[in-house]
Amino acid sequence: MTRTRLTAQERHAQLVRAAVTAFAQGGYAGTTTDQVARIAGVSQPYVIRLFGSKQELFLATQRHVSDRLEEKWRAAAAVEPTMDGLGRAYKELLAERDLLAVFLHGFAAAADPAIGAAVRECYSRLYYVVRELTGATATEARDFFAMGMLVTVLGTMRVLGPGRVEPPPGIAEIIGTLPHEGDPA
């Protein structure tokens, strides 16, 4: 069996995808570079050679999640440049649960100065992307992000999106109040 050599860019992307899976399961503190290496099928020293540290790998993973979200919103805005259009695009990301979990793990790890600075910068950038794409006011963008955080939490609890479980009554009531709750997301 012959193995195809990946370019450096392809290998980097492969490791970030593996890191999304690993960090989604264990968070920053509970994940090792060895776990990421095993998922990617490479050696742990190779992961360190490419990223330098677990922290740098986590930061690359956070950037990947933020970039994926921005890419999704820009594509949606090309069709419908409204908050509703961006909201529906975000709900589609519920199928990529690991992305949402890593997003939340970034906030949880924000007490670390380097991680916190990077996570705040990504969040700020996304805020301005929403304003740019929709023309939203600061208050409208704040409300959009507040709703997005709720959807993120509900999605990672698996009570929204594909493969969802039956929520307890209080959460079901919250879900019933969501705009576009009937959408297939």
Give the helix level as a range of percent: over 70%
Biggest pleated-sheet summary: none
- The secondary structure category is mainly alpha
Tally of DSSP helical segments: 9
Q: What does the radius of gyration come to? A: 18 Å
The number of distinct β-strands equals 0
Spans of at least 5 consecutive residues whose pLDDT stays below 50 are none
Q: Element order, helices and strands?
A: HHHHHHHHH
What's the number of structural domains? 1
Mean pLDDT: 92
Architecture in CATH? Orthogonal Bundle
Strand percent estimate: under 5%
Q: Name the CATH class.
A: Mainly Alpha
- CATH fold-level assignment: Tetracycline Repressor, domain 2
What is the CATH H-level superfamily?
Answer: Tetracycline Repressor, domain 2
Describe this structure in words.
By secondary structure, the protein is an all-alpha fold. The chain has one domain (8-176): Tetracycline Repressor, domain 2. It contains nine helices and no strands. It has helices at 8-26, 33-40, 44-51, 54-79, 83-92, 97-108, 113-134, 138-156, 169-176. Helix 6 crosses helix 8 (138-156). The radius of gyration is 18 Å and the shape is globular. The mean pLDDT is 92.
Based on the model shown, name its key terms.
single chain; 185 residues; mainly alpha; Tetracycline Repressor, domain 2; globular
In short:
By secondary structure, the chain is mainly α. The chain has helices at residues 8-26, 33-40, 44-51, 54-79, 83-92, 97-108, 113-134, 138-156, 169-176. It has nine helices and no strands.
